[in-house]
Amino acid sequence: MTLSVLSVASELYPLIKTGGLADVAGALPRALAAEGVSVRSLLPGYPAVLRQVPGAEAVLDLGWMFGGPARLLAAEAAGLALFVLDAPHLFAREGGPYAGPEGDWPDNPQRFAALAQVAARLGRGALEGFRPAVVHAHDWQAGLVPAYLHYGEGPRPGTLMTVHNLAFQGQCAPELLGELGLPPESYSIHGVEYYGAIGFLKAGLHLADRVTTVSPTYAAEIRTEAGGMGLAGLLRDRGTSLSGILNGIDMAVWNPASDAALEQPFSIDDMAPREASRAALRRHFRLDDDPAAPVLGIISRLSWQKGMDAVVEALPALLGHNMRLVVLGTGDRAIEAGLTRAAEAHPGRVGLHLGYDEALAHRIQAGCDALLVPSRFEPCGLTQLCALRYGALPVVARVGGLADTVIDANEMALATGVATGVQFASAERDFLEAALNRLALLWSDQAGWRSIQRNAMACDVSWARPAAQYAALYRAIASR
């Protein structure tokens, strides 16, 4: 029997994307179809989204929501069944989904409360012919979904809250409680109250039937005071209601055998054409044309969390091993400035693209020899999964999903032939430099390198196993 699920997210690839949440929200529904789960995804009607669903049909008049009229649209796009919250006064503005030129949109609490309210209404059967058994809320922007369902009247669907990054929690002043449509009794430690504020993510974590995060190791880390970011006690109290399910990647989007962004297709069975991508990457970043020098890639937000300051500090050691570095990303001004200075000081050895370019991300994965992911914390990470798929050896800090997805090339792993990359202790200069030393030794044995590369490309990084785990969890929630 098909199980009906409503997925609620603030972004969804390929319609709108700022990070990994969009990739998950876009790929998981398709993978769940094989598990007998039918998913409709609800997302805000940003201009970029509405442009891609020109045939959307208005299916529900939502009335007046936070200062203006709103309606629900139904559409099909990118193989996904969609609901779109069309509320121009909340979402029709230039800038990103969460911020404009002056910083975060000041009405973000109202914008995403509206999204959550619509999800709760759909969950209770407001649209004839659609009543989900489970509502799956993603990250703080959907955190109030379990709250609206919990404090509402009548039968409700089961609820699942997935946290993709605990660092982003969504908080607003308690004076907004009534405006957001939350009852007075909700403002307590057992409701939406969080250190004297209204906590969107806290509400979802506390009130959802089940909670997941995007890797088993991260699920353990956030139960600790060091990793819990103020929520460790609550998460420990959830006990076995909290679990970790690894992310996957879309194997059709990330497929070196058919990727149109690449110079030439390649596969685990025919890796020779990968050399064309290596050469193309050197040309793109104007690196010295030396095929014997390994090129390390970074595709990341340039922030402290991602360990990019440690990369800047360890750059002399990297260059000392005759390695090259290419970077794609944007973020903290100080780190951007440090990498800009490095690119200017080392032309032909350091390449930098400030910003984001999806096609270039594919070309870096296909053309670099190793991918650096030195995060200080990482709920799951997707870039290292793409690297495995494309034969770029991940060099990762031993945290969160990075620890769960990369098998370190230690002596035992090399002896048994299972290594897929390099792990190191934490995102500090000394540890990163030690990892670069190990990487240089691995590179010096090209036959051994090819063996690790084949191991990496043979990894199953698809959504098949995670989708089966989500389907089992949905059914357990639905039968609660």
Automatic annotation (TrEMBL):
The reaction(s) annotated as catalysed by this protein in its Swiss-Prot or TrEMBL entry are: [(1->4)-alpha-D-glucosyl](n) + ADP-alpha-D-glucose = [(1->4)-alpha-D-glucosyl](n+1) + ADP + H(+)
Keyword terms: Glycogen biosynthesis, Glycosyltransferase, Transferase
Q: Which BP terms from GO are recorded?
A: glycogen biosynthetic process
GO CC, any one term? cytosol
Report whether Glycosyltransferase shows up as a keyword of the record: yes
Enzyme class at the top of the EC tree: transferase
**Residues holding ADP-alpha-D-glucose:** 17
Instruction: Please name the Gene3D superfamilies in this protein's record.
Output: Glycogen Phosphorylase B
A GO molecular function held by the record: alpha-1,4-glucan glucosyltransferase (ADP-glucose donor) activity
InterPro entries from the UniProt entry: Glyco_trans_1, GS/SS, Starch_synth_cat_dom
Q: Which SUPFAM superfamilies match?
A: UDP-Glycosyltransferase/glycogen phosphorylase
Q: Which residues form the Starch synthase catalytic domain?
A: 5-236
Enzyme Commission numbers on file: 2.4.1.21
Pathway the protein acts in? Glycan biosynthesis; glycogen biosynthesis
Q: Which residues form the Glycosyl transferase family domain?
A: 293-423
Any idea what job this protein has? Synthesizes alpha-1,4-glucan chains using ADP-glucose.
Q: Which family does it belong to?
A: Belongs to the glycosyltransferase 1 family. Bacterial/plant glycogen synthase subfamily.
Q: What is this protein called?
A: Glycogen synthase
Gene that encodes the chain: glgA
